[in-house]
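Case study 2.
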Amino acid sequence: MMADPAHKEPYRVLFVCTGNTCRSPMAEGILRRLVEVRGDPDVPIASISAGTMGMVGAPVSDFSADVAADHGIDITDHVSRDASLALLNQVDLVLALARDHLDYCRRLGVPDDRLYLLRGFPDRDVDPAFASVPDPIARPREVYEQVFLIIDEAIRRGFPEILNRARAKMDSQR
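Prediction:
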């Protein structure tokens, strides 16, 4: 008999960008939606985002919310949070949106086995210049759409590995 997944700790995925108002909220929403549509109901996965700039309580950017809504994802209730050491230590996987976010997490001591560039995940041998997701801040809406599609593709490509890691965590809690 399988244990009730509600009594298990979810596999926590944290997306990290600069201000936590554009890229990482879109990533958080994309993964949340993907878990709803293609996830395993016996394998809880929590999607979280935070920023390296220390902004707390700022709303998601209008263009990020609009573009996500165009793809059926509601992130309008998102408020920014800090990628603090305490938060980084509470998650199972950290997916940095760009090289500077990866470096920030490394400086705070996130182990390499839990830290990746989003566009490289689950591989490590990626060129950080190519694998960094561009920051759309203060750019036209079309740039936000392009960034959304880049993030969406990366998460969809990495989703089977996220699901495998989440299953392994669930198995270890039995």
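Strands lie at 11-17, 45-51, 93-96, 115-117.
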